[in-house]
Design brief:
about 5% helix, 2 helices, five-stranded antiparallel beta sheet, binds fe (ii) ion, globular, mainly beta, about 220 residues
Length: about 220
């Protein structure tokens, strides 16, 4: 649920039509498809509190497999592009900075055999890289610059910055926060002490620039 342009938007993590909710009464106002806004966006679309915009992404099992766009503070669509992918993927979040949006394409994808049988399950492809697509906020599909990292999956982005980072090997790196003291880890260790404060250490992920060609599904 995100606040945008005077109303709460309830959204679906696997994308769908958002519903508007009154921010004070929590009364459901109805489908938030007015003023030409897109009919499908993902739950981790992100409001920009400085500009009043809502940056959104959408993904689907059929082409276009992923879209990205911007809705203005007037609730009218400002920008939308189709993100070139070779097949369906499962992005959970994205990151935004003042001028750029970072789209996710990780090697956890819907299993094509299951889809062909009318079912849905996900499959991890360890031979494929993680990919981050950096696009100017109003950039075209041709302006997406893809960067690769080791195969992994990431759910949520805490923050992002436009500043350049380099690790000790001189590569660009993406700060990647991770909780190291979650309840599952304490339970696994057999510990019965009070929860420790959450820590968000910065874990750097080596990334490298790659041409725009997406990997085969
Ligand atoms: Fe989430």
């Amino acid at each position: 649920m995100k606040y945008h342009a005077g109303r709460l938007l309830t959204m679906w993590y696997r994308s769908g039509l958002p519903y508007a909710v009154d921010p004070e009464t929590l009364e459901t106002l109805g489908p938030a498809d007015t003023d030409g806004a897109p009919d499908r966006i993902s739950a981790h679309s992100r409001p920009d509190e400085h500009t009043g915009e809502l940056l959104w992404f959408d993904y689907d099992l059929k082409p276009p497999y992923m879209r990205y766009g911007v809705i203005g503070p007037d609730r009218k669509p400002r920008h939308a592009i189709e993100v070139p992918l070779a097949g369906p993927n499962l992005p959970h979040d994205m990151a935004v900075t003042e001028h750029y949006t970072i789209l996710h394409d990780f090697p956890l994808r819907p299993d094509p055999d299951a889809l062909a049988a009318g079912r849905y399950k996900v499959r991890f492809y360890p031979e494929q890289p993680s990919r981050f697509g950096i696009v100017p906020r109003y950039g075209s599909a041709d302006e997406i610059r893809w960067f690769e990292a080791k195969p992994a999956y990431m759910l949520h982005v805490v923050n992002a910055t436009g500043r350049r980072h380099r690790n000790r090997h001189g590569r660009h790196a993406v700060p990647h926060p991770r909780r190291r003291d979650g309840p599952h880890r304490r339970a696994a260790a057999g510990a019965h002490h009070p929860p420790a404060p959450a820590r968000l250490p910065a874990v750097r992920m080596a990334v490298r620039r790659r041409p725009a060609a997406p990997p085969s599904a």
